[in-house]
Amino acid sequence: MNVPHINVASLGGGHGLHQTLLAAKQIAAAKEGAPDPADYHVNAIVTVADDGGSSGRLRRELDIVPPGDLRMALAALTPPSEFGEEWADIIQHRFGGNGAMAGHAVGNLIIAGMAEAYGDLQRALDTLGRWTQTVGRVLPVALEPLEIEADVQGLDDDPRLLRSVRGQVAVATTPGAVRRVRILPDKPPANPAAVEAILNADVVTIGPGSWFSSVIPHLLIPEIAQALTDTDATVIVILNLSPEAGETPGFTTERHIHVFNQHAPALKVDHFLADSGITLSEGERTYLQRAAATSGAEVTFADLAEVDADGQRTIRHDPEKLAAAITALVRGN
What we know:
about 325 residues, Rossmann fold, 3-stranded antiparallel sheet, 12 strands, Putative gluconeogenesis factor
């Protein structure tokens, strides 16, 4: 199912981006079999707002871009070989115990150390990519750490009041309902390499993932939003398989689209890609298509969910199914 020389730019972060990149490797391979890394054309454009866990500790202690989502993207782009699997395991490995190293991922420390040594985060990622022979390039969406701030409803006795909540972890775990997010600093400069990758892509994917902290923040960087408007690529928003506890509890598929459009009202999208396992009435499907039409898009349904050993659908996207669905949209099937 490989398609020759399709350039893919994938925006997101965390586990959602990881699954999309596994799909992108299948789409962008230039020939059948196990090609050389140079035969791939994948760019991972990664969120830089994480402030929890190992990434948060390194961010606070070293004043650096949080490396965790960058590490996960590198792991996803290691080549489909024993060499690649070994490197993926190494950079994803976390130290155990109770000491100062406990909980840190090896890849986070490597990225942080190389970025400090070079004084250049993108050079550090490109060098590590050459060492691990990644079949694509990892590009932080911005070259400075960003913060997420949300307007949250339901944290006071009066449910109508909005309160500001700052930080990715705080937004992801708030017991209230997130209504809107913004990034700090306001209007940060984008990574020029990320802008270039979007402009040169044949297909751009946005999502899936934590809607308010991994997906929407990309759209709030003016140069990224402009590049998404200017690109000739097919722009595909991959919708989540289910609402996410904390950020989007109770969100319908239609609500995900409305929130996306609310934060990027000028952005034109070609397709919203949704899982066909979602149970919708005919009326709900009509409302969904109307929501998508606001950004000039249509909703396409496909079987996208991974299946576990017992044959049960999971809440993770299956890379092969996702690759097939994206390829069909690009081909116009």
